[in-house]
Amino acid sequence: MNNLTEGIQNSVKYIEDNLTSELDINDISARAYLSPFYFQKIFCVLCGVTVGEYIRSRRLTLAAEELSSGTPRVLDIALKYGYESQDSFSRAFTKFHGITPSAAKEKGAKLKNFAPIQIILTLKGGTIMDYRVVEKAAFTIMGKMRKFNTESSYTEIPKFWQEHYASGGGELIKGVFGACVDSDGKNFDYYIADLYLPCFDIPDECAVHTFPAGIWAVFPYSGKCPEALQEVNTKIWSEWVPNCKEYELAGNYSIEFYESPEKGEIWIPIRGK
User: Phi and psi dihedrals of 256, rounded to 5?
Assistant: First the structure.
């Protein structure tokens, strides 16, 4: 097990040991020696669920096990696993298990089980992954910006793009970049953007962000999108990052560059180890 996978597993253990306590993403990611921004990206790719989904699923699994014994009160279990009321717990429980908490106390009730995750990376032969390391001067992007939570970003960001073009925003901002910039560890700023040139005024509805000079790992993709982009993105976080010995992740941001509808690049800031 390399340092990254060991770190992620340490974070999973920390979650498991504190499922009945308040969990904060800063404390969780610190066990993996990663920023919350990168930890959540890597966790989602390696585990197939977001950090929040994992915590909810594990808590609801353990809650069901306790309720099936028939003795605890539903309210006591709700409070134990971090829900503010019995109603909110009952809604989440029913959505996850397909039955109410009260029904779960009956003998023979069918419940779902979400087991603890074990992080295991296995190399199966050589996989060629094209990338190049480039040094870029500082540059600024300009575009429409919206804040997103990691838990909902996968569904909400595509809607943001749809809104942008449906409202005619493509006339002002073509959208050659899609940029994620960490804001507070739990949320990030997402830009639909173009390269900004200082000789132009900044429209009121637009925001700018400057990326410092530095080194970037640039991963090209081509083919039908979003599948081609998602395939490369998965390989970056599940194969390249865990096995890269010369570089480590740098600033808390990443960029997608769209050269055409079926061709582009993913830019990840790095630094030498």
Answer: -110, 130
- Same domain, yes or no, for 160 and 235? yes
CA distance 236 to 266: 9
Q: Which amino acid is at 102?
A: S
Q: DSSP 3-state helix, strand, coil percentages of the chain (rounded to 5)? A: 40, 25, 35
- 192-216 pLDDT, tens digit each: 999 998 888 899 999 999 999 999 9
Q: Are residues 89 and 137 both part of a single domain? A: no
Cβ–Cβ < 8 Å for 55, 61: no
Number of residues assigned to the chain: 273
Tell me if residue 59 falls in helix, strand or coil.
helix
CATH number of the domain where residue 238 is located: 3.20.80.10
Close Cβ partners of 29 (under 8 Å, ≥ 6 residues apart): 11, 35, 36, 38, 39, 40, 185
Provide the domain limits for residue 260.
132-272
Least confident range from 37-41, 44-48, 122-126: namely 122-126
Q: What 3-state class would DSSP assign to 227?
A: helix
